[in-house]
Design brief:
By secondary structure, the protein is α/β, with parallel strands linked by helices. It is built from eight helices and nine strands. It has helices at 28-36, 77-81, 101-111, 126-140, 155-164, 181-187, 202-210, 223-232; strands at 13-16, 41-48, 54-56, 114-119, 149-152, 170-174, 192-196, 214-218, 236-239. The chain has an eight-stranded parallel β-barrel, surrounded by five helices. The longest helix has 15 residues, at 126-140. The two termini are 28 Å apart.
Length: 248
């Protein structure tokens, strides 16, 4: 049974990095704000500390979204756990810590929320990060009715995820339609392709669906773009604007 034939357990609307730009991204504060706007699925970025702890951060370096400095993946979790990941956003969020994947899993499971984990490796650690993040996710969501959806721009990370937790669903992220994208998604046994929203049109949707893949997109923050994608029947829309789009 392919992804189009199987029941799709995820909602169409997905809160980007928790609650996009309305709270410090990839923190529990962002997840709580997304929930306050009615969202029940979130996208987040997960990488590894130097001692192998999966935690949430988008950038390779710490400066933009914390008071830390340098490459995040070169620091231990103890050092990373001491950082302030909220003051850069607003005084109200001062002191907000970087969360582990374990903390986010506990939050989602307790609240019956769903998760899209983007595997975001420190450069040079693509396959290893995919292996560890997928293995951790499989353990954290063991017995859950709906597992997290694992996605990455890096095929090597998805290969690692497939090797360590083949039962978890995977999606290939694309910012361009590079040659062989569809074949690569199929080779990785993905259930979905997640594109920059501008890449989806009737032809690309038909290609993906013809291959049995679900169609998701990022990052949709304008009403006109959302309406175009809804008309195409896109399966998942990732947005920063949890205050604009109702997930109902």
């Amino acid at each position: 049974m392919n992804a189009r034939e199987a029941a799709w357990p995820y909602p169409r609307w997905i809160a980007h990095r928790g609650a996009g730009k309305l709270a410090p991204e990839n923190t529990l504060a962002a997840f709580r704000l997304g929930a306050a706007h009615g969202y029940r699925m979130y996208e987040c970025d997960v990488k590894l500390s130097a001692d192998g702890v999966p935690f949430l951060l988008h950038d390779a370096t710490l400066e933009r979204t914390s008071n830390g400095r340098g490459v995040a993946g070169e620091q231990t979790w103890h050092a990373l756990s001491q950082l302030d990941a909220g003051s850069w956003h607003s005084r109200a969020c001062a002191g907000e810590p970087l969360p582990t994947l374990q903390a986010i899993a506990a939050h989602c499971l307790r609240n019956h929320h769903l998760l899209n984990i983007e595997i975001k490796p420190t450069p040079g650690t693509e396959r290893h990060t995919g292996e560890v993040v997928a293995r951790s996710a499989a353990q954290l969501w063991a017995g859950a009715q709906v597992p997290p959806l694992l996605t990455s721009f890096q095929p090597e990370a998805l290969e690692g995820a497939r090797s360590s937790a083949p039962q978890l669903p995977r999606g290939l992220l694309l910012d361009t339609l590079w040659s062989g994208w569809l074949q690569k998604a199929q080779a990785l046994a993905c259930v979905a392709v997640v594109c920059n929203h501008a890449l989806w049109d009737a032809d690309t949707v038909a290609q993906a669906r013809g291959a049995g893949l679900r169609c998701l997109c990022y990052t949709v923050n304008d009403e006109w773009a959302a309406q175009r994608l809804l008309a195409l029947g896109i399966d998942g829309i990732i947005t920063d604007r949890v205050d604009l789009f109702s997930p109902a």
